Hints:
- Helices cover about 30% and strands about 20% of the residues.
- It is of the alpha+beta class.
- The protein starts with a helix and ends with a helix.
Amino acid sequence: MVTEEKIWEALQAVIDPELGLSFVELGLVYEVNIEEPDVHVVFTLTTPACGIGPAVAEEIDEIVGSMDGVRSVFPRMTFEPAWTSEKMSEDAKFALGM
């Protein structure tokens, strides 16, 4: 059975290509909802001008979709609320010298 905890753990593999840090650690994954056997993931980018949204959605789909018990993945990008560095984990802030 897929759990929210397992999905969040799997999403650690989604890496920001410029910063080399996980989207989860950067606070870019806002929400995970399970409607068995489907999973909905709400994520954002640091800025609306960033062009990697489709690639991130595809990566989320691949990673979460490969998990046992998941039939379909529905990644959704949002900019509400806007991302701020306050959403980052302490480890990510430390890695970036903040």
